[in-house]
Amino acid sequence: MLDIKFEKSKNLKPIPDENNPLVFGTIFTDHMFVMDYETGKGWHSARVTEYAPISLEPSAMVFHYGQEMFEGLKAYKTQDERILLFRPDKNIERANNTNRRICIPEIPKEDFLQAIQAIVSADRKWIPTKPGTSLYIRPFIIATDPYLGVRPSNTYKFIIILSPVGPYYKEGLNPVKIWIEDDYVRAVKGGIGEAKTGGNYVASLASQVKAHDAGYSQVLWLDGVYRKYIEEVGAMNIFFKINGIVVTPMLNGSILPGVTRNSCIALCKKWGLPLEERKISIDEVYEAAQSGTLEEVWGTGTAAVISPVGELRWQEHIMKIKDGGIGALSQKLYDTVTGIQLGEIEDTLHWTMEVK
Ligand SMILES: *Cc1c(COP(=O)(O)O)cnc(C)c1O
């Protein structure tokens, strides 16, 4: 058990009017959770304190060699005013997998969960309630040794900040147009692709800019060796329904193991749908699109939950899916996952956890 000190903010902010759109990741609550690490002392000084700037030496290691990790999950307020987290155990397990990969000291899972509960509880009045809204939770760890040599840091800060967010897409489910990148790559097996760390995102920016300039909202990555097998989208995993079969790339060491991905697989299996986790080449997807058997494509991730894909662009080929509309299975997955998250559908899989 952590002994968490509570230092109440003296500058409480107005809570945003839910009738104005909440733009993802732009507004932060009154408080943040902070805990420090020092070699020999371990994680210590857990506190909930005012959300405010932090002070670091310009030589802090995180600024130079990128030793940092993050997570992303959400809290929801139900009709009867309970607060639910969605599968926080999965995020915590993944956080410690990331930590091990990039030499950050692990956080005991009970302590991690206690920290999430404490900060969400402290700022519970910030959880929006309009349909499609939630409180986005962003835990992260940064290396803070003032040192320019290359080695793992001996000191770290673990921080959790909170941001009230609206529906990812204003009109509800909205099909996205995706650019398939066949020049740059995001990650290779043995690298850090399966860790949730900033380095993967910095590697993706140039492609994202290129895709945006061409009128596409996201990038779909191919594997780093052959530029042939489908990996994932910027911050989402990807699913295809081809000729009645649900297919998603298997976790191969370079793909981020998404919690939403795992949840969609579990639901498809529960519903008795044929599902394959395997290698899938871009040629297979293109041929399915040509022959009319590419029935649905959607992305999965905490921010949007399910993102139907209406168009894929690969080199000079444009593949239209569902005439740019939403598939029945994409819609059913969205309704089911969000229904469970909001406590509106019975949680037979025990995915939600209440914050007291
Ligand atoms: C976080 C993330 C995802 C989605 O994971 P969820 O746990 O479903 O939110 C997918 N890909 C990348 C690269 C990510 O960082």
Architecture per CATH nomenclature, i.e. the level-2 architecture of the largest domain: Alpha-Beta Barrel
Look at the structure and give the mean pLDDT. Answer: 96
Structure class: alpha+beta
Strand content: 25-35%
| Number of β-strand runs | 18
Spell the H/E element sequence.
Answer: EEEHEEEHHEEEHHEEEEHEHEEEHE
List the domain count as a whole number: 2
The helical percent reads: 10-25%
SSE diagram, text form:
Layout: E1 5-6, E2 31-38, E3 42-50, H1 62-65, E4 68-70, E5 73-77, E6 83-86, H2 88-101, H3 109-122, E7 134-143, E8 155-165, E9 176-181, H4 198-202, H5 205-213, E10 218-222, E11 230-233, E12 237-242, E13 245-249, H6 259-270, E14 275-278, H7 282-291, E15 294-301, E16 305-314, E17 317-320, H8 328-341, E18 352-355
Parallel strand pairs: 1-3, 9-10, 9-16, 13-14
Antiparallel strand pairs: 2-3, 2-8, 4-7, 5-6, 5-7, 6-18, 7-8, 10-11, 12-13, 12-15, 15-16, 16-17
The protein binds pyridoxal-5'-phosphate (PLP).
